[in-house]
Amino acid sequence: MDYTVAMQRAIALSEKGLGKTAPNPIVGAVIIDATGKIVAEGFHDRMKSPDHAEVVAIKAAGDKAKGSTIVVTLEPCNHTGSTAPCVQAIIDAGITTVVFAVSDPNKKAAGGAAALRAAGITVVEGVLKDEAAFSNRAWLMKIGKNRPFFTWKVAATLDGKVAAADGTSQWITNEASRADVQMLRRQADAILVGTNTVITDDPHLIPRGDFAGYTHNPIRVVCGEQELPKDAQVFDDAALTVVVKSKDLDVLVEKLNELGINHVFVEAGPTLGSAMLDGCLLDELIIYQAPALLGTGKHFFAFDYPTTITDQMRMDHLGTQVFEGDVKSVYRIRNGE
Fold first, then answer.
1. Which residue, among 121, 33, 117, 109, has the nearest Cα to 76 in the 3D structure?
2. Which helix (H) or strand (E) element contains residue 9?
3. Reading across the β-sheet that carries 38-43, which strands appear in turn?
């Protein structure tokens, strides 16, 4: 049987968990019958329930789970944490085939495929592996490198300016671009800025708009040594705010790991953003470019190198969208690769 369509649905379901699962991964699962028809589905939403995606789908399937196939984006876990192993739930439900995309790199939870096979269940691995891994790239980064995944968002003119020479910066991009940013904020576990951004712009850092299924706001993280105004908007009760009073990026990462963060949406200015890029601590750049030129002004990248064309910092282009004239481009940062 071709499990592609079912896995595509499972990946789409997993993405409903973005911003809702940390420190756990996003996972989607669908249960199909012998004809390939979906009879139940689920995704992990830690904000609502500790149940993993497989258990959510199994509970939704009821008796229909017996003799069925479960298609899941990540190898079912084989350990007891805050919940019982998903492997045991699958066995108890009478499911006969398990299809998954990405093997679990977490040593504590690994071994699910072997345990399922030992129980006589057919296991198919690697279906749409790359697609599922991309959706879950933040958690996979955290497991692989013991740090969160960092996305730097920049709003700039065509000549790379984020502010005019007189310091004014709002608004460079249009409302459609700014609405897209709100969803990216929602899907992150934390929003990071530097102290200078708080002092200069007094941002609230709370996603604006009505987003179904989200019951909490991302953690606000402020990094830097400058003293902050006590009445700054980031200190209201709309979300947790954590101040990392240091310029040491290792200290920042340590604190983010303590908080169990998977994905950090960086809305910092040129100073902190460039320092993170220089320190190989950024994984993704999302730049919204307005069809405008400023000439003089503040550039989003604050470092002067490279000095020759052969030393340029290369990135991998992942995609582009147009929002009423603004161009959003997404790049993977190679970090020395």
1. 109
2. helix 4-15
3. 38-43, 28-32, 69-74, 97-102, 122-125
Query: What does the pLDDT read at residue 306?
Result: 62
Tell how strand 326-333 and strand 315-323 pair up. antiparallel
Contact criterion met (CB below 8 Å) for 17 and 43: yes
**Which candidate, 264, 254, 203, 259, places its Cα nearest to that of 228?**
203
* Active site residues per annotation: 54
pLDDT of residue 162: 86
Burial class (CB in 10 A: 0-12, 13-18, 19+), 140: buried
Q: Residue 217 has which token pair?
A: 């706001």
The DSSP output letter for 55 is H
**Residue 301 and residue 285: Cα distance in Å, rounded?**
12
Judge contact between 232 and 198, C-beta under 8 A. Answer: yes
Residue 307 confidence (pLDDT): 67
**Looking at residue 82, what is its pLDDT?**
67
Alpha-carbon distance 21 to 28, whole Å? 12
Strands lying side by side in the sheet with 326-333: 241-244, 219-223, 190-194, 263-266, 149-157, 284-290, 326-333, 315-323
Spans of the chain, pLDDT less than 50: none
Q: What are the CB-based long-range contacts (under 8 Å, 24+) for 138-147?
A: 138/189, 138/262, 138/263, 139/21, 139/22, 139/24, 139/25, 139/26, 139/262, 140/25, 140/102, 140/105, 141/283, 142/23, 142/261, 142/262, 143/105, 143/106, 144/105, 146/257, 147/253, 147/256, 147/257, 147/281
What's the pTM? 0.92
Chain centroid, CA 156 distance in Å: 22
**Rounded-to-integer distance, Cα 257 and Cα 16, Å:** 23
Q: Rounded CA gap, 28 and 67, in Å?
A: 20
Element (H, E) at 92: helix 86-93
Beta carbons within 10 angstroms of residue 246's beta carbon: 14
DSSP for 138-205, please give it. Answer: HHHHHHHHSS-EEEEEEEEETT-EEE-TTS--TTSS-HHHHHHHHHHHHTSSEEEEEHHHHHHH----
